[in-house]
């Protein structure tokens, strides 16, 4: 998965990782990605990742689910096949609420998970080449974009000389 | 050993399911008066057990209870298996499982739809939504951990399977960011969902006119009971898991104690609900209502009532004693006692209310048959088989969550060597 023009810097802890991220960004290097075995606190701010809009997706689909469920029940009981059940009114809002609620939750939940998978480009694949096998175990990795590998490599080496890294390649 | 017993129980249950479908539900002990009994009891019991998982993963996540991290994964798995066991019962109940699709609203040549005024239809939506959301929630949490397993394996079929299951998880910063937001949002919507599911189940009873069922206290009372029995089942499973998998350092005594505190709280709510019901039956001045409750405690099913009160009210109050709360052996035994008690709670509610209601001429007794016991044992078999398989194949404790906690915890202790934080 590693692209040819990417430089890989790996760490064994999150503190030097965060230091390196700040330093690289201060020096206008372009970080393509940061990989870690668990969510690192403070990394979002360091990379200035904007807050994801997945909750908005959830809200929109939840609203669609609510309208769909309520509208469908109302249509069934007033237009499609009105039935007298226990003398209750055809359009009885309270009895439509439980299903409306459940369908809202279902739509919101599934849409958010779908949004997460699509946005993060996660899909079931038989073949998968990890950038570095240990990033799901105990390695932290920064990928930096490089137009010219040799010069960027030496530039990054000197930049990160004070920080404890495992490997720069 | 455990697997063999569970497997045999499952086979027995599957045979009984086939027998029921083959012969018809006449093989059960239900009669015209007691039309709901053993199976509904077991169904509600399983749904109740299924509540603890999402309670732990959603509500405790929102309340930032860090201790949940070592128990949430297995509790969520438990939820899924319990809901599967529960969902079997409506299908068997139909007598003709091939016509299951009748319970969903779909366009058909008869022009009819399902009755949206009926709590039984609400149940279909509530339980299928609950199952879907719990499954998705559990799986989203598993994805990074499956990634870890994938990278531990060098090659072969197993590698391909884990590749497939891990959805190509990379661990990138944006991926984690979205993963965290999705998890917290799922927790936020799963919280009201947990409360809604058992409320809707309770409405199957509460919206009828049967004395002893027709009460407004049912939704909160059922939810508290569900969390009570669910936590008891979590205790049973976790104490077995920590013993067999050697997870003593991860599932500690303080986890067990914390869950015991939740058991006291929910057990007390359940006790209060029993008392409120009793009081209301007298205070309402309704003689049918009054008789239903007197009949529960002193009628022919008094023994079921005694088991219910003994197992749920008195036994859980013993947890006020710190020594017992911390004892694993006691907790294990108590958790089984509570689950028996909660099964009897549903039995008492359902059977004693139905067997003597308004018409004295149709009063009768109910006796379960071997087929019905078979279904209970069989679902227990399915449940334990699935759970044991799960702890063999997937990480029972969320690896990435424990890592992030270990790192922060270790930093507090000024430790420099942080590399030995693998959980397996």
Report what the structure shows.
The complex is a heterodimer of chains A (169) and B (424). Chain A is α+β, with helices and mostly antiparallel strands. In chain A, α3 (54-80) packs antiparallel against α4 (93-119). In chain A, 49% of the residues lie in helices and 11% in strands. Chain A has helices spanning 14-26, 43-46, 54-80, 93-119, 149-159, and strands at 6-11, 31-35, 140-145, 167-168. Chain A has five helices and four strands, in the order βαβαααβαβ. Chain A has two domains: 6-51 and 130-168, 2-Layer Sandwich (Alpha-Beta Plaits); 54-119, no CATH class. The two termini of chain A are 15 Å apart. A four-stranded antiparallel β-sheet of chain A has the order 2-3-1-4, covered by helices on one side. The mean pLDDT of chain A is 81. With 424 residues, chain B is mostly helical. Chain B has one domain. Chain B is 71% helix and 0% strand. Chain B has helices at residues 2-23, 38-49, 51-62, 72-93, 119-152, 157-165, 173-206, 218-245, 253-283, 287-298, 302-317, 322-326, 328-355, 370-393, 399-412. The longest helix of chain B is centred in the first third of the chain and has 34 residues, at 119-152. The radius of gyration of chain B is 23 Å and the shape is globular. Chains A and B meet through β2, α3 and α4 of A and α5, α6, α7 and α15 of B.
Short description:
Chain A has 169 residues and is an alpha+beta fold. Helices cover 49% and strands 11% of the residues of chain A.
